[in-house]
Write a structure and sequence with these properties.
Layout (H helix, E strand, L loop, with lengths): L5 E8 L5 H11 L5 H13 L6 H6 L3 H6 L7 E5 L4 E6 L7 H8 L4 E7 L6 H12 L5 E6 L8 H17 L8 E4 L23 H6 L14 E9 L3 E7 L10 E5 L3 E10 L2 E3 L7 E6 L12 E4 L6 E11 L13 E4 L2 E14 L6 E4 L9 E8 L3 E2 L11 E6 L2 E13 L1
Parallel strand pairs: 1-3, 1-4, 4-5, 5-6
Antiparallel strand pairs: 2-3, 7-8, 7-13, 8-12, 9-10, 9-13, 10-11, 10-12, 14-18, 14-19, 14-21, 15-16, 15-20, 16-17, 16-18, 20-21
């Protein structure tokens, strides 16, 4: 599979618009789900009185989710088309799952936005589109799903296309390059093959549109950045930090540093899937061993990079944020938890520098007193303890974050500039 170029695909949209079913259908049509699994899911679904859910079942592979009928974890599912092999970042739709969407979407190259024909654009549809835009998703394919529920009517499809087009224009997505496709994930119309029910539509079907996505350039020429997920001690090897390479390439012999812990050494070995490798690149999950580094020297949230292009540690940073939900108002001095790559650090919003008009991107107000749900703003942030983070225009993979408080994601943002410590 991996001899084809790779794409990370986010599947976004409102919670009940059929994202899981669509993803299940894609896996099914590209023969990435064994038949017997589908049969077994069917039986289970019927026993529990959810007859129509068999494709969604492919996605919701956690029993607890099945009971609740909700997708929780970002399920990394893989399938391949003639042109690419895709990893699907299935982005759950419920409110408190927006954080997953941020850590998920920021890893995605392109997105499929699912909008149900019978329901149209919902607040969550808007939120996901805005987030995708903020987090730098390149191309959007819009699947107008559940056409079977509207009797495959062209008129209703056109209405939804118009609604979504307005929404995309609002956040300045490139509408000319956006493909709209009427589908029924449940019945399989226009997913892999043209459907007689939609004979009035002559554009690409979903798999063709996916095949025609532009190839993404893997960020191999950016400096090495590996956010550390865990640190293990393995007998016979020693301390082994584990993480996913976001940018650059790691090879044994590299001189690396871990920030903000500020320790470093020479990379002795790099392993993927328990096998030693000569080099590893963007998207690879690796374990590696660095000479002279002990288990207590480094921790989750550190970022590993080359000594001569060391990961940036912020004294303060300026960021553009979008407030999605907050019960009251946010003022200077507010200190929630920022989730950036694998780090979780309490940070204080020192000043609110500008309020941005979300529709036009223009500055609406300088130094406003407060911001609230629905606002976009430029803010200056001071981490309460050292945090490694990069400007999004330099290393986008380490430039976006989610802000959480009171058990929910209240905002998302990207880093504009960093004042280094």
């Amino acid at each position: 599979m991996s001899d084809k170029p790779h794409q990370n695909l986010a599947v976004i949209g409102h919670v009940d618009h059929g994202k899981s079913t669509l993803v299940g259908r894609l896996l099914y049509e590209t023969e990435n789900v064994p038949e017997h699994v589908i049969e077994q899911y069917k039986e289970e679904a019927e026993e529990k009185g959810k007859g129509g859910f068999e494709f969604a079942y492919v996605m919701d592979n956690l029993a607890e989710e099945r009971e609740r009928g909700v997708t929780i974890d970002i399920a990394h599912q893989e399938f391949d088309t003639d042109e690419y092999y895709f990893t699907i970042v299935d982005c759950p739709g419920h409110r408190d799952f927006v954080k997953n969407m941020i850590t998920g979407a920021s890893q995605a190259d392109n997105a499929v936005l699912v909008v149900a024909a019978d329901d149209g654009v919902q607040p969550q549809t808007q939120e996901h589109v805005f987030l995708a835009r903020t987090l730098g998703i390149g191309e959007m394919i819009v699947a107008v799903n559940k056409m079977d529920l509207t009797d495959y009517e062209e008129g209703r499809y056109r209405e939804v296309v118009e609604e979504v087009t307005q929404l995309l224009k609002q956040v300045r997505f490139d509408v000319d390059n956006t493909k709209f496709i009427p589908v029924s994930a449940f019945e399989g119309d226009n997913v892999a093959e043209r459907s007689g029910n939609l004979s009035w539509f002559d554009g690409d079907v979903l798999l063709e549109a996916l095949n025609n996505l532009p190839e993404s350039e893997p960020p191999t020429d950016a400096p090495l950045r590996v956010p550390i997920q865990d640190v293990y001690t393995i007998s016979g090897i020693g301390t082994v930090p584990v993480g996913r390479i976001e940018t650059g390439v790691m090879t044994p012999g590299n001189d690396v540093t871990f920030q903000p812990s500020d320790v470093g050494g020479e990379v002795k070995t790099v392993e993927m899937h328990h096998e030693e490798v000569d080099s590893a690149g963007p998207g690879d999950n690796i374990g590696f061993n660095v000479r002279g580094i002990g288990k207590d020297d480094i921790r989750r949230g550190d970022v590993c990079g080359p000594v001569d292009q060391s990961p940036t540690v912020a004294e303060t940073f300026q960021a553009q944020v979008v407030v999605m939900q907050h019960p009251s108002v946010i003022t200077a001095g507010y200190t929630p938890v920022f989730h950036a790559h694998t780090a979780q650090v309490a940070c204080t919003i020192e000043s609110i520098d500008q309020k941005i008009d979300a529709a036009s991107g223009e500055v609406a107000e300088e130094n406003p007193d407060f911001i609230q749900s629905g606002d976009a703003a430029v803010v200056t942030v001071r981490p309460q303890k050292p945090l490694s983070i990069e400007p999004a225009n330099e290393i986008p993979e380490l430039g976006s974050f989610a802000i959480r408080d009171m058990g929910q994601t209240i905002a998302a943002g990207k880093v504009l500039s960093v004042d280094e410590r």
